[in-house]
Amino acid sequence: MPLFRPRPCGRRAPLLALALGLAALPGAVPAQDIVLKQPIACTLGETCYIQHYVDHGPGPELRDFGCGTASYQGHDGTDFALPTLAAMAAGVDVLAAAPGRVRAIRDGEADGAFAAGADVAGKDCGNGVLIEHGGGWQTQYCHLKQGSIAVKPGTKIAAGTRLGQVGMSGRAEFPHLHLALRHDGLDVDPFQPDPAAACDPAPRRTLWQDPPAYVGGGLLQAALSDAPPDFAAVKAGLTATDRLPADAPALVLWAYGYDSRKGDVVTLTITGPEGFTFTHEEVLERPQALFFRYAGKRAPAGGFAPGRYEATVTQSRDGAEIGRKEAFVILAAP
């Protein structure tokens, strides 16, 4: 078996094949479950989020374990993502999800090479670590930061051991850890390890010690500015300001989110002194792994009234709110 599969973020072994393989062994006793801890040192929903889950959909159909589409065709692992490049630069540790022995590592691949157009064929995982856990179980950690690998092959490690840091090496377009779990060489979804089970946002059986809540998209950041920011700057880690001059040419509310679906509704609202109100609602027309929306109001004659302006962004799906972010800015007289 190769150290790093040619397409660790691509086509996985079909779940149907795993189901048929088990059915062909009457009376077979399932192997003892592995128990996984969170493999990244961050707070889900605050400083990191899950961008993609394992794809359970047959053929071209997309379906994650929770009946949503937070995946892409053939995705064989779980992507724990950082919201910005600045967060990656600050350093976020990748941790061993379970005790085991390091089988192999790779380091030295540049971060951001694929996003810049480089050919990463054969090194899609980028910098990574492969761990054997016994009982046929393996975990693989991909896209780590160049030069951050902190373990050596043959080393016996405990759960929570630092393996390196989240990066953007290999076939990666955003900073994230791709965690792949395999049993006897076949890919397994730790959120829903039963291949024949129906999709369910709260499956009865998972392989997580503390199962992360299923979140099929949401908002990462919202802020007020005096002009629409560049999306590349937002993804890089644009720092929101809390003060603007009262003679600002406009007041713009922007929102940055992930895993939107067609039909999601994003509502942007601003309120301020002297009865100032502004509301913009937009129905998203297509799914996006990362999305960016903004709306605002030009300055009236004589400028905005000085004071505190508050903003709220909500994201709704099928009539239910799935994300909310709040922001404010002080407009100060010159």
From TrEMBL:
According to the record, the signal peptide region is: 1-31
Q: What is the lineage of its organism?
A: Bacteria, Pseudomonadati, Pseudomonadota, Alphaproteobacteria, Rhodobacterales
**Species per Swiss-Prot/TrEMBL record:** Rhodobacter capsulatus (strain ATCC BAA-309 / NBRC 16581 / SB1003)
Question: Per its UniProt record, what InterPro entries does this chain match?
Answer: Cell_wall_metabolism_enzyme, Dup_hybrid_motif, M23ase_b-sheet_dom
Q: Where is the M23ase beta-sheet core domain?
A: 75-190
Q: Does the keyword Signal apply?
A: yes
Question: What is the protein's given name?
Answer: Peptidase, M23 family
User: Which molecular-function annotation in GO is an example for this chain?
Assistant: metalloendopeptidase activity
Q: What class of enzyme is it?
A: hydrolase
Could you say which EC number(s) this protein's record lists?
3.4.24.-
